Amino acid sequence: MHELSLLENVRTILEEHAQSQHFQTVENITLEIGALSCVELDALTFAFASVMKGSLAEYAELKFKRIEGQGRCFECGQLTPMIELYDVCIHCGHFRVEIVSGLEMKITELKVR
Ligand SMILES: [Zn+2]
Predict the structure, then answer these.
(1) Å from CA of 105 to ligand 1 middle
(2) Per-domain residue ranges for the chain?
(3) What is the 3-state secondary structure (H, E, C) of the chain?
(4) Is the pLDDT of residue 1 over 80?
């Protein structure tokens, strides 16, 4: 369900851009998806076809750019890789880690006609 609402957002953004920038068709679209955003790429690909049906992006090719999770530890100040939202710092084991990247969900590239 998460994936559906995300894609409905994307479709709305595309429709708005199509009006203001005068294009009719989206040929391909790249979505940046953070590893911590809880979005499943398989589910997203599946939902894309149904959400975009009948829209200007119906035949668009969907690509992903995966952004790895990374946090900064409040305790030791170092950057630490994050696989899951509540990972601890790999340097000192502290659990207070501020997420620096990995929550992204946005359109990064768009090819239109
Ligand atoms: Zn630390």
Answers:
(1) 27
(2) 2-68+102-112
(3) CHHHHHHHHHHHHHHHHHHHHCCCCEEEEEEEEECCCCCCHHHHHHHHHHHHCCCCCCCCEEEEEEECEEEEECCCCCEEEECCCCCCCCCCCCCCEEEEECCCEEEEEEEEC
(4) no
